[in-house]
């Protein structure tokens, strides 16, 4: 039995609340259990200097944790500087979203994603990716409604989930208690069509086997299928 009482293939309670940021073109408050992340998408009619004149756009992301998103207050990174972890996560979010956007169809524009962790209990990067897609989709709907673009440049959905070996058993969607004691943990980014965008997997103790990795991948696909269906339902609303 998992500490939470969930089945090994069971997600935490997941919810998406859209339109929560008045001034953003797209926004979503995503909750994976006690992990809560505010994701916003801002439309920008410029591109990074190194892309100008190339006829394509860009999607980039920033990520941060609020000082009391964890048990002890952390210093704001605006004061101490970004950690390597923060830089790695925001690059992951950007890569994940660009994988499902036709950058040429976006034109010489960019979508700026901001993911702010309000409360952390494991899986903040995967929740950020999943919620950021919803915010990005809203921003593209806004742009088409305004006549800025003829159609959305989004070509697929993308979601992410964590998995790990907990007490030797493969488990889906780890909370902090599980993640901090797992024998192995992994993050999977998967498109709506089942394509793999990125896999981050690490053994925390003994190396894991091919069969164990296959079990984690199977769980991740199952979880992302569920999340993608929820994204599709929101996109159609």
TrEMBL record:
Pfam families: RNase_PH, RNase_PH_C
Source species, domain of life: Bacteria
Domain Exoribonuclease phosphorolytic: 10-139, 156-223
Catalytic activity: tRNA(n+1) + phosphate = tRNA(n) + a ribonucleoside 5'-diphosphate
Protein keywords: Nucleotidyltransferase, RNA-binding, rRNA processing, Transferase, tRNA processing, tRNA-binding
Sequence positions that bind phosphate: 85, 123-125
UniProt-listed Enzyme Commission number(s): 2.7.7.56
Top EC class of this enzyme: transferase
GO MF annotations in UniProt: tRNA nucleotidyltransferase activity
Job description of the protein: Phosphorolytic 3'-5' exoribonuclease that plays an important role in tRNA 3'-end maturation. Removes nucleotide residues following the 3'-CCA terminus of tRNAs; can also add nucleotides to the ends of RNA molecules by using nucleoside diphosphates as substrates, but this may not be physiologically important. Probably plays a role in initiation of 16S rRNA degradation (leading to ribosome degradation) during starvation.
PANTHER family, sorted: EXOSOME COMPLEX COMPONENT, EXOSOME COMPLEX COMPONENT RRP41
UniProt similarity note: Belongs to the RNase PH family.
HAMAP family given in the database record: RNase_PH
Subunit structure of this chain's protein: Homohexameric ring arranged as a trimer of dimers.
Designated name of the protein: Ribonuclease PH
Lineage of the organism: Bacteria, Pseudomonadati, Pseudomonadota, Alphaproteobacteria, Parvularculales
């Amino acid at each position: 039995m998992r500490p939470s009482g969930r089945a090994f293939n069971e997600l935490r309670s997941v919810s998406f609340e859209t339109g929560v940021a008045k001034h953003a073109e797209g926004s979503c408050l995503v909750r994976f259990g006690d992990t809560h992340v505010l994701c916003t998408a801002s439309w920008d009619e410029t591109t990074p200097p190194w892309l100008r004149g190339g006829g394509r756009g860009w999607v980039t992301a920033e990520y941060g944790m609020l000082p009391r998103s964890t048990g002890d207050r952390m210093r704001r990174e605006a004061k101490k500087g970004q950690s390597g972890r923060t830089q790695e996560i925001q690059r992951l979010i950007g890569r994940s979203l660009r994988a499902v956007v036709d950058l040429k169809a976006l034109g010489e524009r960019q979508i700026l994603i901001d993911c702010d962790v309000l409360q952390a209990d494991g899986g903040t990067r995967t929740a950020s990716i999943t919620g950021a897609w919803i915010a990005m989709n809203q921003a593209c709907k806004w742009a088409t409604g305004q006549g800025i673009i003829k159609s959305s440049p989004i070509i697929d959905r993308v979601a992410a989930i964590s998995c790990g070996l907990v007490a030797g058993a493969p488990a889906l969607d780890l909370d902090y208690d599980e993640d901090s004691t797992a024998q192995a943990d992994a993050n999977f980014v998967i498109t709506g069509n089942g394509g793999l965008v990125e896999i981050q997997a690490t053994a925390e103790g003994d190396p894991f086997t091919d069969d164990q990795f296959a079990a984690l991948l199977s769980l991740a696909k199952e979880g992302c299928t569920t999340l993608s269906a929820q994204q599709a339902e929101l996109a159609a609303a």
